[in-house]
Write a structure and sequence with these properties.
The complex is a heterodimer.
Chain A lengths: L1 H35 L5 H41 L12 H47 L3 E6 L4 E4 L1 H7 L3 H4 L4 H5 L4 H13 L4 E9 L2 E14 L2 E11 L1 H36 L6 H33 L6 E5 H18 L3 E5 L6 E5 H17 L6 E9 L4 E8 L32 H12 L3 E7 L3 E9 L1 H7 L1
Helix pairs in contact in A: 1-2, 8-9, 9-12, 10-11, 11-12
Chain B lengths: L4 E5 L3 H13 L3 E5 L2 H11 L3 E5 L7 H10 L8 E5 L7 H6 L4 E4 L4 H20 L1
Parallel strand pairs in B: 1-2, 1-3, 3-4, 4-5
Classes of the chains: A alpha+beta, B alpha/beta.
Amino acid sequence: MLKTQRSLAWVAVTVAVASTGVAVWAQLQDLGNTAGGRSPVIGLRLALYAVGAVGVIFVAFAYFRLAGQVTSIARQLASATSGASHEVTLEGTDELSMAVNACVADRETTLRQYCGELDELRLQVRLAERQKRHTEAIIYSLRDAVVVIDDQDRLVVANEPAARLFGFGTVEACGGPVAQVCGDKHRDFVEFLHQSAQSGVEGTRREMEFVLADQPHVFDTIVSCVYEGQKVSGVVAVLHDITREKEVSQMKNDFVSHVSHELKTPLASITAYSEMLVDGEAGDEATRKEFYEIIQNQAQRLNRLIEDILNISRIESGLIKVSKEPVSLAILIEQQMSMIQKYAEEKNITVSRQTPIIFDQVHADKDMLSQVIVNLLSNAIKYTPSGGAVRIATEVDEAAGRVKVSVTDTGVGIPEEELGHLFGKFYRVAANNKHAKGTGLGLNLVKQIVEKVHNGHVFVTSKVGVGSTFGFELPLAATEMATA
Amino acid sequence: MTGNKVLIADDEIHIIHVVAIKLRNNGYDVISANNGAEAYDIACAEHPDIIVTDFQMPLMTGIELIEKLRAGEATRNIPVILLTARSFAISQEQQAALNVSACLSKPFSPKELLKSIQDILYQRELAVTN
């Protein structure tokens, strides 16, 4: 349609120019003829003027129509740009209108596609941001240290445990080179990250030592590669502190080792003496009787050991049955003293007591408290040389509502550096091993019974060559009842 | 093979007692020590033909005793049997390095101990004869 319009305009212009030209030529001829006679083409001249005028009018019409359409497009575009309207349409069925409308429709379709894609991208960005926040929340809430670096060895993410471990600030360190952020003393860790990134292996694992709060700690360090296609784009390191686990594992191994040793020692005697009896190597009745008594004693020793281990285990796990009742410490001490009197006499040791008659009632499990007193008394006798003395005393602090029981001996004493370990399981003072045998469980059982079952506390003071005082403090029965 | 002198080192008096009876019943001379340090002094003074020692003892452990024996000119070649209640206390390599002749786990059989002593002393006598 536009082509037709243009052609018509060209025709109109050509006709107007041609007719004007002919009219001008005729005018010039007329001037010539006027000089020599009358013009023969005056009619033609008038006709050509008319045609020229029509052509000019047509051109003017075409111009104004075209200008009107351009103005309409400009106005609609301005309106679309300002957001007032989204449509650009030319009314009419001419070639220009149809071309413009088709072009606009095509652009609108493309624009709608772009808008759809933009919305999709915005949604993906929002989801990615949410995912990132979730991931960061998980990382920041972990108690394990987490370090993430990119393929340029820059720190991307690190949580608080990692910051504490490596000594950097989580915010300011991010974006910095990991070697610089972690420092020289963690060169091994940085090297491990590099090696893992180069190897591209998923989940490389290594136990690494770090110093945390001036204490050596062992961390189970797992490094995983992050891939973008085939390329490693970064690594994630998770460091789990296994120091305590290793200590517990070592304690378990030590415990099993100690227990097996302690159980096997009396068992070795029982086995050997039994075999001798069976093989008839105990020649006379007296020897056989001696062997039977040794077997019996060793069996009892084995039983005591197993009972001690089980009691400690039951107390530690809270499974032991405790029957508390008002107990007179004075009576309990008297009973236990009579029990160990024979042992004291065999070693020529004097055992005395200093206990008040009243104000010594405690709310306790009688059997367990008896065990505590007998353990302390027998230990004192065991490590006191012949001719020495053992004294048991109680002191009541009415104001504090507590009673203190102490067993003092004139024994070999204990080096100061050993005092802190004495109530530990299987702990024995090496220097005193030659004086007496023991399992290292007696004092641990005392501690468990006093502190875990009766809310008291144990204590010890000692001087090598002078003697030791072991004891415990318990709340008086009246106090415990009042606070219960 | 009687008349050989055996040193028993153990802090368990009942073990010393039963081993001593078993060995004396089979013609051995028996001397004893209650710890590693005492055993070393007796070994230097008495030159026993063989030593039976416990692994865990006060003052000086069985391993420390053997190390000290191996370092001394006069005690270097005394065969040693180690008794232990800790099965994994000493590795095969450690036994070989310390030239431990045999290692018996507690609880042990006095008959087995006697047989070990007899075998070791017999091998030693063969080596000396050859």
